[in-house]
Amino acid sequence: MLKNLIPKLAGVENSQPQRHNRKKLWTIPFIIAITVTAILAILSLFTGVYDIRGQADGMEMFFITRVPRTIALMLTGAAMAMAGLVMQLITQNRLVEPTTTGTMEWSGLGLLFVYLLFPAPTLVLRMTGAIIFSFVGTMIFFVFLRKVKLRSSLVVPIIGMMLGAVISAFSTFIGLVFQVTQNIESWFVGSFSPVQIGRYEYLWIIILVTILIFIFADRLTLAGLGEDVATSLGVNYNRIILIGTGLISLAVGVVAAVIGNLPFLGLIVPNIVSMFRGDDLRSNLPWVCVLGMATIIVCDILSRIIIMPFEIPVSMILGTVGAVVFIAILLRQRRSKRRLR
Mind naming one GO cellular-component term on file for this protein (predicted)? Predict the structure, then answer.
């Protein structure tokens, strides 16, 4: 009798709620990823037309241009990849990121209005305008998604890109009417060539954004399960959505003001990470940051060596690679739906 009860009691004990075992971070693949990213950063430091080893002022130029550029690459890659990860989690859609929701276009509109109000705006003013407008634009997109029921996940990025196209056309019209288009021409083509000491330091704000996203990671993950589930688990859904949107807008606005438009980076990296690690924001965040850095460094190195001594804007390479990944994700989703049928 007692022998029969022991397994049952053990089964009862094992059925009690247990603490969730998170995936280990410091695994061999993650250490390899960090090592590869560090090697790419070193390559970036020594890639360029100017001969830093053969010129008298080589070391001075190294710290004025090469080091700031590499730091900017790493911070920007982490920021855009994180923004894509959070947006995909909140909208429950793999195809959403700042480019496919119109967030970047709203940032450009914010920059344009800053130039209209202030003829020679400082970088802080440009950042403020980009952050405010990107927040407003992202909230408009989220409100639209909540009000309209969509049958297909593919419709979500299509609507976002249509909204972005409308905002971009409006920005072009305003720029032509007030003759300020030339002031934001560099924004439309994201490039790291102008980065040097004194022109990238505000990107360090991204570290603060990363810390805040990590703090709110669990609540953002619950919000990604839907309003009903999040509310039943004690999460204030509307508040966490506002916080997530604010963090996204802060990261995108800083990048838009300092670097410019960088398409599809937030689409490529989070999808690759989620494909192998699932949808837990806290455990995926370090992976997304590291792979975002590696991706943009590779694209920037290619932009410097393809037609050396000239340079291709990194946004062109990102746009090409991102478009291919976007199509691949669509085809993958289509195949999975066919299998389910």
Answer: plasma membrane
What is the distance between the alpha carbons of residues 85 and 269, in angstroms, rounded to a whole number? Answer: 8
d(CA 282, CA 163): 31
Residue-wise pLDDT for 320-341, tens only, equals: 887 887 787 777 766 665 665 5
What CATH number is given to the structural domain containing 92? 1.10.3470.10
User: How many Å apart are CA 85 and CA 94, to the nearest integer?
Assistant: 9
pLDDT per position as a tens digit, 109-130: 888 888 888 878 888 888 888 8
Query: What is the residue range of 68's domain?
Result: 63-340
Domain membership of residue 146 (yes or no) is yes
Evaluate whether residue 55 is within a structural domain. no
Which one is predicted more confidently, 50 or 240? 240
Cβ neighbours of 85 (radius 10 Å): 28
d(CA 270, CA 17): 30
Say how many C-beta atoms besides its own lie within 10 A of residue 266's C-beta.
33
Please check whether residue 91 is in contact with residue 225, taking contact to mean a CB–CB distance below 8 angstroms: no
Q: Can you tell me the distance from the alpha carbon of 210 to that of 12, in angstroms, rounded to the nearest whole number? A: 41
Domain membership flag for residue 288: yes
